[in-house]
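G., the chain you wanted modeled:
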Amino acid sequence: MKYAFINGIILDGTRNMKPRYHQAILTYDDRIESITDENSSSFQDYEVINLHGNYIMPGLINMSSSFGFDGKSRTSRLLSLPEFMKVNKIKKIYKKELLKQLYSGVTTVLSMGSYQNMDSVMNSYIDKELMDGPRVIAANQPIGFKESYLSDLCMMVSNDEEAGDAVSQAYINKNDVVSIMATDDIFHHHQMPGSLLSSIISEAHRLSLKTAVYASNQEMMKTALKCHADYLYMGISPDVETIDLFKQSNTVLISGLSPLINDYLLDADKTRLNKEDRHKAKTILQGAISCLEACMLEEIPVGIGSGIGFYVTHYDFWRELIHFKNFCHISNKFALYCATYNNAKLLGLGSVTGSLSSGKYADMIVTRENPLDRLEALKDPVMTISKGRVYKDITINKNIQIEKALDRIIDKLR
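Predicted structure as tokens:
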């Protein structure tokens, strides 16, 4: 299919992007064919899509998400179901939440992990056009450690042999990334032995698989950096050694402030966290922000993701951009660049998506307002284009209770 997107204002996703007027984006099948002067071009061979002065930019790229969570659901009852019922239910949930991501303007997403090999299953369905969804960088089932409370969600390992088997299974499952839970979440205190984390990362790299490590304390963060993990989720207040390790390892720090902010600022009757846990969330949030600021100051690569947590939905990635901007004191332009072209480069996809230029995938989002003026413009897209497929008249079934609570947080943090 050939499309000509005309009468739009182009934001190309590059670091110094400026609005470009009177240019048309021509696409052929899944790629951008060219960007040309509207007034000197003929579009007789194209289906013309008039953007009526709206803004068109690259699709958003979310560097941390998981499709089994919708912001409110608890997994315990689901995981207790018989296997065939569980798999069918999880498939339905994943399809629904992936579609929400796509409709919200996210055209590429790095998974933090899924049930068994569900990321790869979803990718297969999307590639075969059996369902609609964004491009998924598959992590499938994370690898955890035997003492963890996450035993129902992870492949649990306790020695090098089991670690090797788990990584081999990730390779068989067609993982793009091996997701490793080196610690429990911030409210639990168990952690993986450093030697075991080293074995998992080494074996993954031997099989040419990238690694993404969740570490909620300083010790495991440093261990992951010493082992040259490719991605590190969250971050803790860094010392001089940590910054040096980041520089030596070239590890990408992935921001995910939304879960911590929600744990700290949402009403206790919603999170069911006690005063001590809320204080812990505040302390970890301050440490994560400190790590982000230090890494950006030292030009260490930083990506943006929404993370997983209570009241973190699949259609609110724009909120993470606002938190990233506000806490790291950056411009709207830089936040948008980070969520598009910079994230694409950090995923090794900069040559095929993340910015608007000839030959790249036609991954785009259309908004009524200019997100360079207000990032809230990303909240309700007019249109999403993913690999050349056009999705108009978008309707996302949002949870009003969640939206109101999160809007109050945005207002509180202004």
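Residues 34 and 96 are 33 Å apart (CA to CA).

Shout if anything looks off.
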